[in-house]
Specification:
It catalyses: propanoate + ATP + CoA = propanoyl-CoA + AMP + diphosphate; acetate + ATP + CoA = acetyl-CoA + AMP + diphosphate. By secondary structure, the chain is α/β, with parallel strands linked by helices. The chain is 30% helix and 21% strand. The protein has a domain of 121 residues: GMP Synthetase, Chain A, domain 3.
Length: 698
């Protein structure tokens, strides 16, 4: 499961000062706690639960489950009989019991430098209670679903915590998604209310969010689903005096009495404000409702297995899956992973660059940090606006100590070299983290050496929307790091590697990554579709949770994620990981980023078609193509030699940075029918990629 000892060579260690103060400071301590979490889970999680408030205690077994579809319905139950409220634990407890009312909960950093806001725990609690009362005034009650479609503003956190305070279930839709995507999610979860904003800027690009929200509601109506209430936040404000008495647009967002910096932070002086459509039969103004609401709201006490939120993730059928998480297990798991993986200390300033529209933002911007009373940076912007030094400017501005971002952002910034990073001090940084996909060793080394100055351990975390929190991860002071490895399982997590026949493989091996038993934060079902839940995650290998990812375990017991199983290519009978080929390409100094897909081949079954984005100043030519093919051949073997390598100045990515490989496969095959591309951050790259397409005649 985990090795008796860890290697001393070819690994990276945290410095002595960090190890001395860490929560888990040696591999021996990690192993001791890990074994306790597996052998005595009631005691392990029971001890952690003592740090939280419970209206009623749990009864019976702490954790009950069935992972075997041949033995009946799949289920996971944690702390049955207990009742609590997650908002109470995140806010009331920190303000009243821990006396953290004046501590900063969020430093909000807007898209424009200088557009900023500071929110304390007391102020956040006040606003959450006010908005919870707003929701109740609109008829929202325990168990109702509320759709939230908002930019990265403090009000997004307020809305989600207001929902859980009254026992409502939030369904947050990433603000980069299309009207079609929003309407599909609203209808699937049968939401009774939509919360949105007028619009926002992402770098130079204006997103007119209210127009998209209205279009989504129209699509819902066209399919027979009526949602007749939409609360809109005026984020891109006009000065109050510019709103005439007869205006159909709601009044501009004015300062909350307790947030003195609000006015300065909200008024965009250099940007055009979108024209906001307003339907008085449906639309309600956030400010008008909030200003009339009381700032006292008793929490709704919820059972442990009551629904907390629904978050949609991609499905292999094309229809998104509504992943359902529940109250107690998710609360304990996100709080514990945040505390131990980032080695959280009370004086830390933590920054996760993700969007709350994704699971990373749910778990490691909102729930995990607030459960620990942490101070976080909430960032509306992008890494390259107004210049490529923005992230490091923010790190210095707020003296960020723990920094968590995606490999795609790291590779993007690598293109510009070390100078934009080294222009800033970054001396406050202590721990770096990565999330979203496996990080290739070259990007890891750059992150470690350039961003962290060779002194900050990197926690390369593997997890999914479905897992709720980290499942494979280093602990910064306890586990020596191997660049690109997800290292070892977190407490309570029991991984295994299976072959195609479902047999567990021992020692160094490669195959399907599965988990043998649940942990508190794992998903409970697919909303409204238990059969899809069981088919997707448990049917292929009864008795195991199937991640859908390939994994390799090396001779030292370290786990390496090789990519989605559906990102495996079968070339002449050999399974090749696209992630492995991409890593080999990116090791070349000319390549900043690579994406590999398969296309049909009459002889080999599949062939490798590679897209490469080059570092600044490098020209793509035949000589470089030959070099890159040679590099892959030498790193992996002749069987992995790419058939086609295409210059890709840009790759089709979502606004969260995920590469849309579905589109790349279409381009590789010369197919113009791309389907919905509205979620792309920059759709203009698609035509450029078609123009640069390789001649694929065989």
């Amino acid at each position: 499961m985990i090795p008796d000892k860890v290697p001393k060579e070819n690994v990276f260690h945290a410095d002595e000062e960090l190890r001395k103060e860490a929560h888990v400071n040696t591999f021996e301590k990690y192993k001791e706690l890990y074994l306790k979490s597996i052998q005595s889970p009631d005691e392990f999680w029971g001890d952690i639960a003592k740090d939280f408030f419970w209206k009623t205690p749990h009864t019976g077994e702490l954790l009950e489950y069935n992972f075997d579809v041949t033995k009946g319905e799949i289920f996971i139950k944690f702390m049955e009989g207990a009742s609590t409220n997650i908002c109470y634990n995140l806010l009331d407890r920190n303000v009243h019991e821990k006396k953290l009312g004046n501590k900063v909960a969020f430093y909000w950093e807007g898209n424009e430098p200088g557009d900023e806001l500071t929110v304390t725990y007391r102020e956040l609690l006040q606003r959450v209670c006010q908005f919870a009362n707003v929701l109740k005034s609109q008829g929202v009650k325990k168990g109702d679903r509320v759709s939230i479609y908002m930019p990265m503003v403090v009000e997004l956190v307020v809305a989600m915590l207001a929902c859980v305070r009254i026992g409502a279930v939030h369904s947050i839709v990433f603000a980069g998604f299309s009207a079609d995507s929003l309407s599909e999610r609203i209808m699937d979860s049968q939401c009774s209310l939509l919360i949105t904003a007028d619009g926002f800027y992402r770098g130079d690009k204006l997103i007119n969010l209210k127009v998209l929200a209205d279009e989504a509601l129209q699509k819902c109506r066209g399919r027979g689903f009526l949602l007749n209430k939409c609360i809109m936040l005026k984020h891109l404000s006009k000065p109050p005096e510019d709103v005439s008495a007869g205006s159909q647009s709601p009044p501009a967002k004015r300062p909350c009495p307790d947030l003195e910096q609000e006015k300065q932070s909200r008024v965009k002086k250099t940007r055009p404000v979108p024209k906001v459509p307003w339907n008085p039969d449906v639309d309600l103004c956030w400010l008008t409702l909030e200003s009339a609401a009381s700032d006292e709201c008793e929490p709704e006490w919820c059972k442990s297995e009551d629904p907390l939120f629904i978050l949609y993730t991609s499905g292999s059928t094309g229809k998104p899956k509504g992943v359902l998480h529940t109250v107690s297990g998710y609360m304990l798991y996100t709080a514990t992973t945040f505390k131990l993986v980032f080695d959280y200390k009370p004086d830390d300033v933590y920054w996760c660059t993700a969007d709350i529209g994704w699971i990373t933002g749910h778990s490691y911007i909102t729930y995990g940090p607030l459960a620990n009373g942490a101070t976080s940076v909430l960032f509306e912007g992008v890494p390259t606006y107004p210049d490529v030094g923005r992230m490091w400017d923010v790190v210095d501005k707020y003296q960020v100590t723990k920094f968590y971002t995606a490999p795609t952002a790291i590779r993007l910034l690598m293109k510009y070299g070390s100078e934009p990073v080294q222009r800033y001090k970054r001396g406050s940084l202590k721990i770096l983290g990565t999330v979203g996909e496996p990080i290739n060793p070259e990007a890891w080394q750059w992150y470690y050496t350039v961003v962290g100055d060779g002194r900050c351990p990197i926690v390369d975390t593997f997890w999914q929307t479905e897992t709720g929190g980290h499942v494979l991860t280093p602990l910064p002071a306890a586990t020596p790091m191997k660049p690109g490895s997800a290292t070892f399982p977190f407490f309570g997590v029991v991984p295994a590697i299976l072959n195609e026949s479902g047999e567990e493989l021992e020692g160094p091996s490669e195959g399907y990554l599965v988990f043998k038993q649940p942990w508190p934060g794992v998903m409970r079902t697919v909303y409204g579709n238990q059969s899809r839940f069981e088919t997707t995650y448990f049917k292929k290998f009864p008795g195991y949770y199937v991640t859908g990812d390939g994994c390799r375990r090396d001779k030292d017991g370290y786990y390496w994620i090789t990519g989605r199983i559906d990102d495996m290519l079968n070339v002449s009978g050999h399974l090749l990981s696209t992630a492995e080929v991409e890593s080999a390409l990116v090791e070349h100094q000319a390549v900043a980023e690579a994406a590999v897909v398969g296309r049909q081949h009459p002889v080999k079954g599949e062939s490798l078609y590679c897209f490469v984005s080059l570092t600044e100043g490098v020209t793509f030519d035949h000589a470089l193509e030959v070099e890159l093919k040679k590099q892959v051949r030498e790193k992996i073997g002749a069987i992995a030699t790419p058939d086609f390598i295409q210059n890709a100045p840009g790759l089709p990515k979502t606004r969260s940075g995920k590469i849309m490989r579905r589109i790349l496969r279409k381009i590789a095959c010369g197919e113009r029918d791309l389907g919905d591309i509205s979620t792309l951050a920059d759709s203009t790259v698609v035509e450029q990629l078609f123009q640069n397409r390789c001649c694929t005649a065989v």
